[in-house]
Amino acid sequence: MPEQSYDLAIVGAGQAGCTLAGNIAQKGVNSTTGEPLKIALLDRGPYFKGKPNPGYGAPERRQMFTNISLEFRNRYVFRTGLKSGGKRKIPLKPGEESFLQGTAAIFGGGTLHYTAITRVPYPVDFQVWAEETGADLGYQTLKPFAEQITRDFNIHARPEAMMTRADLLFRDAARSMGYSPVDATIAKKNCLLSGYCDGPNMCRYDARQGSFIAYLPIAEERGVDMIPDTRVERVLFEKKGAQVQVKGIEYTQNGVRHTLEVPRVLVSCGNYGTPPLLYRSGYGPRELVDGELVVENRNVGRHTDNRPSVPGPIGVFDEPVSDGEFHHEQAYYVFHDQNSDHRYERVTFNIRAHRIPYPHQVALAAEGSGFGRQHKEFMRQFADPGKMTKTRREMASQTRSSIELVRPRTIRGWINEWGEQIYAGNDPAIIKHLEQGRELIYEMLKKMGAREIRGMDRPLRVRHLATYVGSCIMGADPKSSVVDPYFESHDIDGLFVCDGSTVPRTASQGYAGTVATLALFASSRIVERHFQRG
């Protein structure tokens, strides 16, 4: 542990934490001395430093990152969920299910693992936030921060040259049915189009943009101390009369427990990670807190909002709808609005070319059946994307689709002590809308010219939540939120929270851009109130 005092400790170096560290360090000063802030940034994973160089990568870091998912799948990842032999403090109720998250355990967090398909929220998303929280989160307030994230992350539409025949068929069919398809924008710069980064692989060439590239280098330049490979056990509080205030943090690094005294702590562990840390610290609902209850706030861990997602029908075409390479993702989305104001229960879906599996994936799949020389010859041909073999042609002649429900009106969830999200993802009110989306995709595939449509008879079941927010919601009313409009706890002086957990409701699309926009806004608010001279 660095032997110095700090003005601020930020726990969690993900999409929000890196954004916060860079901007607070850049724009804030010690309010008493006017000197640069002393900030500690902690994360449970390693820190691979190196100056960003989009399209080329940093030599110091490139060897650490790989394009082959099997080589890192179990590295730099922390999986939430009930441990073997563990028991939930609150049992599941009928209709509730547990949803888990494999969170990135590395400086940069999800900014290194995401598909780079993202965008900032739409004006209507900000409007919903403002209406539900009573805070100044409207479009005019957040527009400058959203625009800055769009620039800093280089968020843009895919060039038509990168699109597949499936993308163009989907776009034209949607328009013919009266819809206005929207771009599935990407956050990339100088991308080599290798295909291996349109998924959970880390980019060796810094082409995937996010807070790791845009803001973590600023934090480093401004002297933020990076404290890697740590598990923060709890935030330390002390009572002074009727007030409770932050005293510091307790964390473990390399098997050794440390205590860091600091007057302000900013928790940024994500929607799944922040509530369990607060529970361990004595803050939250009484029945979920570990040990002594310091302050009870029943909103901690509650009010989660999600975009429940299911796979849609498969389209089979007479001719290939892609070139058979590995790197294709969707280029467009379509919104089907249940309500004219676009606020709640928006069904969104996409149709895209079937992504050709990587060789190591297809080797064990049904398409790769056979043994000995037959299998060897099959793999030799399949591994060469320049050869349109029979198997590759069959795959390239298919489309996949997915359906999401944006802001279910009545279904909210919560996070328990194990980092599980307890959520009624298969409530009939959700499934009804997803089934409607499936019917729309069926009609659209027919318009696109599919000769066969598979999967219409398969029961829909939500096993994936496309985004997850709201477990430590920000708002003006202490009765319904955890932090105030300046991202400070309503109950504890010096405790701040900003990450996906403070986002009031999911945005209509995107996640990384949403979290970064709010974090950029939060950094300005925190500097305004606490880190200006005089």
What is the tally of helical segments?
Answer: 14
Mean pLDDT: 91
Profile the largest sheet.
8 strands, antiparallel
N-C termini distance:
31 Å
Extract low-pLDDT stretches: 67-71
The best one-word shape is globular
Strand content: 15-25%
**Helical/strand content category:** alpha+beta
Based on CA atoms alone, the radius of gyration comes out at 24 Å
Could you estimate the helical fraction of the residues in percent? 25-40%
Number of strands: 25
Summarize the structure.
With 534 residues, the protein is an alpha+beta fold. It has helices at residues 15-27, 59-62, 110-113, 123-133, 139-152, 165-176, 211-214, 216-221, 270-280, 359-362, 372-382, 390-396, 428-448, 512-530, and strands spanning 8-11, 39-42, 77-79, 97-99, 102-104, 155-156, 182-183, 186-187, 225-227, 230-240, 243-253, 256-261, 265-267, 283-284, 295-296, 305-311, 314-316, 332-337, 346-353, 398-406, 414-415, 421-423, 452-454, 464-469, 495-497.
